[in-house]
Inverse folding.
């Protein structure tokens, strides 16, 4: 599959996802919103895992695997930012705090994609950057730990705010939950498949 085809598929996935999300948010049915959010988040995670495994099997450079990981992480964050924007700007504007979370997710998405580009440039030059790879691994470990804690916290919450439409942030809680699960999966795969391939100092 060439790059243009991949971009077209991503545009279609995000477009369909955004339209479905708007309808789900407008319906006020949390289970519908959860289904759409989970589907898109898990689709990104599944594609990220498949790409990581394929690169590992092909013996691709460590920078190539790390670049792919950072790229799919960035897509999860970007999806989360877009989900918050379309939900709270167009449908549920009563929750005033959404711009803060939108900005945070968008910023992390940009940083992740920038990191992925830097690693891809190293692949093109045929040389790994040990410092960049180590930073990436540390951030991945921190992110994995953080997302696991976030998922556990959301699931054991007795109020289950992502099912309670009386709470203004119910939709955001859903985005956070499935985004965290997707990020945890991508992070775990990256750490597992690169465990024996760390660069020397």
């Amino acid at each position: 599959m060439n790059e243009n085809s991949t971009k077209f598929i991503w545009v279609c996935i995000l477009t369909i996802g955004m339209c479905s999300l708007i309808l789900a948010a407008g319906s006020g049915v949390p289970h519908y919103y959860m289904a759409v959010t989970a589907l898109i988040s898990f689709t990104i995670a599944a594609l990220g895992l498949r790409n990581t495994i394929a690169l590992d099997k092909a013996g691709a450079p460590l920078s190539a695997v790390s670049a792919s990981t950072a790229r799919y992480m960035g897509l999860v964050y970007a999806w989360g930012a877009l989900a918050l924007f379309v939900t709270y700007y167009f449908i549920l504007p009563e929750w005033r705090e959404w711009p803060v979370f939108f900005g945070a997710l968008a910023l992390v998405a940009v940083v992740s994609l920038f990191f992925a580009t830097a690693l891809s440039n190293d692949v093109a030059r045929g040389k790994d950057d040990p410092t960049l790879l180590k930073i990436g691994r540390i951030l991945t470990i921190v992110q994995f730990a953080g997302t696991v804690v976030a998922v556990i916290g959301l699931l054991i919450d007795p109020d289950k705010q992502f099912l309670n439409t009386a709470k203004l942030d119910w939709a955001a809680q859903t985005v956070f939950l499935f985004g965290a699960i997707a990020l945890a999966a991508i992070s775990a795969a990256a750490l597992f498949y690169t465990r024996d391939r760390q660069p020397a100092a």
Q: What stands out?
A: The mean pLDDT is 87. Residues 3-193 form one domain.
